[in-house]
Amino acid sequence: MEQVLSENNLVISVDAMGGDNSPRIVVEGINLAHKNNPDIHFLLFGDEEKISADFKRFPQMKNYCKIIHTPEFVRNEDKPSQVIRNKNTSMYMAIDAVRRGEAEAVISAGNTGALMAISKMLLKTIQRIHRPAICTNIPHKSGMCVMLDLGANTECSAVNLAEFAIIGNILARHTLEIERPRIALLNIGAEEMKGREEIHQAAKMIKSTHLDLNFIGYIEPHQIGEGYADVIVSDGFTGNIALKTMEGTAKLISGLLKGTIKKSIWAKIGLPFLLPVIFTLKKRMDPRKYNGAMFVGLNGLSVKSHGGTDSLGFSYAIDNASKLVRQHFVQTIRDEVEHVDLDELSQDILYDVY
Amino acid sequence: MEQVLSENNLVISVDAMGGDNSPRIVVEGINLAHKNNPDIHFLLFGDEEKISADFKRFPQMKNYCKIIHTPEFVRNEDKPSQVIRNKNTSMYMAIDAVRRGEAEAVISAGNTGALMAISKMLLKTIQRIHRPAICTNIPHKSGMCVMLDLGANTECSAVNLAEFAIIGNILARHTLEIERPRIALLNIGAEEMKGREEIHQAAKMIKSTHLDLNFIGYIEPHQIGEGYADVIVSDGFTGNIALKTMEGTAKLISGLLKGTIKKSIWAKIGLPFLLPVIFTLKKRMDPRKYNGAMFVGLNGLSVKSHGGTDSLGFSYAIDNASKLVRQHFVQTIRDEVEHVDLDELSQDILYDVY
Fold first, then answer.
1. Is CATH 3.40.50.720 the right assignment for the domain spanning A1-126+296-328?
2. Where are the domains of chain B?
3. pLDDT tens digits, residue range B217-242?
4. With an 8 Å Cβ cutoff, are B280 and A269 in contact?
């Protein structure tokens, strides 16, 4: 393995102890993901004995995986302020492998706040990028789009939003394979003066960058599902509100549907005919497919898998991260921001106003 | 009619020229609403000839309606800055009737921005209330809840949010007939320090008012559908984002469902059995039932009906407004805020911090 690693720099570091059924789900997930990603190698951090026990079912895994024993792991109830001081946890060491340049990305199904805090502390934001963002892919009518920020920053300046547009553009190109992603700012109206001041300024800034032609202006939340945009940019508070509202509405509708069907004898007779439809829809909306919230803008990619996901869900998170690692996502951001001085642009736009 | 009006002060003023099929829809809507609200009288502002023509089908309407001719009306494309200067439109005159004390509420299906601007200018905010808010009732798993602000204020202070909580509490009592509404602030997490500073401060302020026992803390968007709260308070930007995300997600799911059913011969066979379920759900989620966005916090109630609604939808907007008028909603707000000095509370909370 040592040798393989040095020949091939496509390495993902994994916190094997995060999530509800670790390390079993993690090991199974890596095994599944390997089929689509034979070029990716993995560093697994955690309890060596437990991981090795799970490895027994997949003996070929030792060809592309290396286990690094860690004496401790982060618990769900641990506070970020505590975990950043403990260098012996599987999460800390997995992230540190990215800092040391041994891996390009880290994945964990553990404590979200801890992952964000340690990642931010160890990896630091890319030069010229002011704030990292959380993003994920979400489904729309005819495909998927990238949405960011989903909660890393409760308040954002115009510069932050413009940076998210640059990062989101690269994400859509790399993960959704869209050559020229349509970028939009999430807002409460399409007219130029609707919404908050920082959104208006961000629009002006994005128009002054290389993204000018990709930028389609403002998108209202009810248009996301229509597939009007490939990259949806907002501050973390608004993005989190929108994402959780989507979740809640989907749950409300499916709950009402189930409840009403239960009460109708006719519906129960007709239901078996609709099973193929339900199956297709379930497959289309399967949350495991969208598993993996990415923490982007740092010197290394940090991916949070859902804590309760199964091995298939974990493998999707790896798939997504692999696409980015393979295309050297972090270096692409560095290259693109090198030619855009958003702080200067921001000054120009401010002078424009007064 | 003149005599009736002076005996009975439950009067609603109506802009008969607003919306897609006015004044026909408006006249039919009033006729429908009268059945549930025989105690309410109406002042109809608009083209007398057209309104009278529609009245011919309902001759009894002249017993509880009075037509006031206006030479002009507000168009959908008119800018708020223009319409506030034209005193001859049906919308302006209908709102002015509330200012003059001839009616307690005004309803229009016309230009939203114009209705807000004229209402704000003529009715002015209630003393001690700093900002008006837009609110509506939305469905959850087992009933309905009040949500505000939905777009009147893109940014809000803690004082504004606390005021919305006071108004929302009255709205839930009067329109949903909930004796002790559970009030929550919309936020991105349940923990005390999650989200924005003004939300934390608003929570402290609400706890210091008479609403202390009704206040249940923060609600996350995916919990709205669960029916955790009866009053959901947010700034207008966030509320608008949440409302439009609900709309969009519902549309996305029903679109995907229809699209998938179309492609399946089995589903087409089973579908007729599910018609009662679809009918029940449609009835439950019927947007006409939630018609009527209320502009509250002013000296008079201003209600915006959806421009494309039908007569039943318009009658629901009247129903809702009638409940508030019958219980003298505006006076109730005045009485409640008289005993709460939010500005002073706000100072106390600021001193607490430093």
1. no
2. 1-127+291-330, 130-263
3. 999 999 999 999 999 999 999 999 99
4. no
